[in-house]
Amino acid sequence: MIDRRRFLASLGALSGTYTLAACGGGSESDVPNSTSSASGRSRQLNPTARAESQGPSPGGTTIPDATAIVDKRGSVWTVNNGVVFQNDTAISIANVLMLLWSGGKIYQRNTSGQFYVWSNDWLLCRDPRTPLAAQSGMFFGMNGHYDYLYTPAQTIAILNGMGCSIYRLGCNETSAELRPVARMARAMNGTGIELFCLIQQGLTDDWGNLFGSEAAAYAKAYSTGVTVASTLKPYGVTMYECGNELTRRAQTVIDSNRAGTDVADFNNDNWPVMRGVMRGLIDGVKAAQPDAMCGINFCVADIGASDALWEGNQPDGTSGHPVVRWDMTTWHNYEVYGDLFDIGSDGAGPHFDLPQYCKARYGVPFMITEWNANPEQSDDYRSAFVQSRLQSFYDARKTHNIQSTMYYVLDSGDHTFGIMHNSVPILPTYLSFVNFVRSHADS
């Protein structure tokens, strides 16, 4: 009955190793890429860095003030006559007034006052140090499934008892999935609980074949977006997640052990199909509901994918392709992926503050739409994990533009992920979640 979260391989996360999960808020025809462990690659310091570095510079270090910045790889960054140098090699940029080390990333401001961040290229951004607070009132959330045996009234009572104000449900355009989600939306309308709809449009047609072109993918996704939004709009649904972990499908990620910080981690040939699905869903939703908010979700540290989509680039480095722009940046952060605020990147480093980076790059609210500990952990471990992870999310909500955190999942049919099982709370995880919510205002 329940489409459970299944991790596809050993989850022993070693230093410099990525072992990824198969994630999703509901059923999905495209199976995520299978996983295995692979050692990361470390970058050796050059003689200059080795001589000058005594560890990374403190966060917030700037040039001027300092004469050099040492990043987490040991590279030494300097500025000379408005030009940035990394380990004595000029990085093609000019007119730089200030270099900043913040959240594990190098930022610069030029003479026009514009900020850029170094992420395998200089990318347009905002000052990452500027605090930004998202809309309050939906910080504590929960995932569920459309085919639960809980009635809408029972679900609402459970969510109210936990203090949740947003509930994520996935469906496609078929009546078998869309009707129960619509019934839940109708029941929740006016209760103070937002229904957040994940639109489960994959990359394949009804026969399981990859769409033949970006245009074909767009057309199908557009139709799905129109259908779902038209059905849910009358019941007060205003937010949609357009596709689930599409960057981590077997068709799109080349090696799922990679963190996703390099666009070359992704399949260039199939990229247009993925982009077409994302564009089609967003355009379809907004055609039916122009004021709706649409998000695109990513996993691990997929800024290579998110940046390329935002800029209209391909994994082969070509530019000028259609752009994908979203109203909410949504991300999945399971324990195996690492600390969201100090997450690893390709080549075993450097770690960086992902929500801060997204705040600076995209300037839209950040939502953590799936998170949990590894499934093999004990209930006591999961309880402590819930407390510590919620605390880190909560502490950053006003500075990092974090609007919502949605625990995965209400009921997984067992103790691997669920916070309840057959209407009975799983202790002590349930109490850890509820007590945190009660003692931390969503304001």
Short account of what is shown:
This protein has 2 domains: 47-125, no CATH class; 140-439, TIM Barrel, CATH 3.20.20. The chain has 443 residues and is of the alpha/beta class. Helices cover 26% and strands 20% of the residues.
Poorly predicted sequence stretches spanning 5 or more consecutive residues:
1-53
- Molecular shape: globular
Helices and strands, in order, run as: HEEEEEEEEEEHEHEHEHEHEHEHEEEH
Biggest sheet record = 8 strands, parallel, barrel
CATH class of the largest domain: Alpha Beta
Q: Which fold does the CATH topology of the largest domain refer to? A: TIM Barrel
**Protein structure class:** alpha/beta
Q: What is the strand arrangement across the widest sheet?
A: 10-11-12-13-14-15-16-17
Number of strands: 19
Overall average pLDDT:
89
Q: Supply the number of structural domains.
A: 2
**How large is the share of residues in beta strands?**
15-25%
SS field, number of helical segments: 9
- Architecture (CATH level 2) name of the largest domain: Alpha-Beta Barrel
The named CATH superfamily of the largest domain: Glycosidases
Helix content: 25-40%
Radius of gyration: 22 Å
Question: Could you walk me through the main structural features you see in this protein, from its secondary elements to its overall organization?
Answer:
26% of the residues lie in helices and 20% in strands. The chain is an alpha/beta fold. The chain folds into 2 domains: 47-125, no CATH class; 140-439, Glycosidases (TIM Barrel). An 8-stranded parallel barrel has the order 10-11-12-13-14-15-16-17, surrounded by 6 helices. Strands 1-6-7-8-9 form a 5-stranded antiparallel beta sheet, with helices on one face. Helix 4 packs parallel to helix 5 (271-288) and helix 8 (379-395) packs parallel to helix 9. The longest helix is centred in the middle third of the chain and has 19 residues, at 214-232. The relative contact order is 0.15.
